[in-house]
Inverse folding.
């Protein structure tokens, strides 16, 4: 089975721009979660989608949003980028929810200048 | 925010030694405790996980010990190898009694270096 894939792997944006990141979960997995990883804050949960519905949301501002498509692929969007948004954005898929096994993708390294 | 406290922040072990990483959680409703291994430039990989109905789970050289009363769990890496050098994260999550799930909480990570 193919693992979780994320595109793009690297991205450089300017403050004020917006960005869209994509995640394809493992085939058959219906839950996709997004995380932000930084050296200072560690791994922080952004949101989880299950069957095209946002099921849980972390403590991030409304500039961070996401969606899930009928094929379980997911996108997250960050609008009005700030320097502090520079991070590794990780996507994780699981069969039905994140209280069970989660499998992470390689991440998208976002740099905001 | 539910917390999971992980220690130590960094660990240096000689090849063949035992690496021990500890985590403590707060929410007694958590019922799933995974450990992840992350190499530079890669996403975290699920290493081993335990549920509170058992006190220990072993997979190869990796063992989780779980102490429900103390709300603590630990990862033991036996016969540590240089290839084990990575960052290790503990996490905790679970299902709410009312339905839905708790947001998973991660420890801050332990950077393990195994010297040859």
């Amino acid at each position: 089975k193919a693992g979780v894939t994320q595109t793009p792997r690297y991205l450089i944006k300017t403050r004020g721009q917006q960005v869209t990141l994509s995640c394809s979960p493992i085939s058959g997995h219906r839950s996709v979660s997004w995380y932000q990883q930084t050296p200072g804050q560690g791994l922080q949960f952004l949101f989880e989608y299950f069957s095209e519905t946002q099921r849980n949301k972390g403590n991030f501002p409304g500039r961070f949003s996401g969606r899930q498509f009928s094929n379980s692929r997911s996108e997250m969007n960050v609008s009005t980028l700030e320097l502090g948004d520079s991070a590794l954005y990780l996507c994780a898929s699981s069969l039905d929810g994140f209280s069970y096994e989660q499998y992470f993708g390689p991440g998208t390294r976002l740099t905001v200048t | 925010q539910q917390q999971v406290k992980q220690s130590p922040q960094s660990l240096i072990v000689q090849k063949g030694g035992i690496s021990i990483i500890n985590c403590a959680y707060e929410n007694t409703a958590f019922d799933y405790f995974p450990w992840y291994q992350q190499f530079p430039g890669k996403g975290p990989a699920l290493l081993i996980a335990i549920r509170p109905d058992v006190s220990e789970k072993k997979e190869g050289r990796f063992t989780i010990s779980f102490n429900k009363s103390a709300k603590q769990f630990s990862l033991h890496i036996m016969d540590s190898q240089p290839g084990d050098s990575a960052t290790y994260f503990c996490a905790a999550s679970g299902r709410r009694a009312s339905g839905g799930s708790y947001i998973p909480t991660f420890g801050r990570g332990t950077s393990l270096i195994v010297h040859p």
User: Anything to note?
Assistant: Chain A touches chain B at residues 4, 33, 42-45, 48, 55-56, 58-59, 90, 92, 97-107 (CB under 8 Å). Chain A is about 0% helix and 55% strand. The two ends of chain A are 37 Å apart (CA to CA). The first strand of chain A starts at residue 5 and ends at 7.
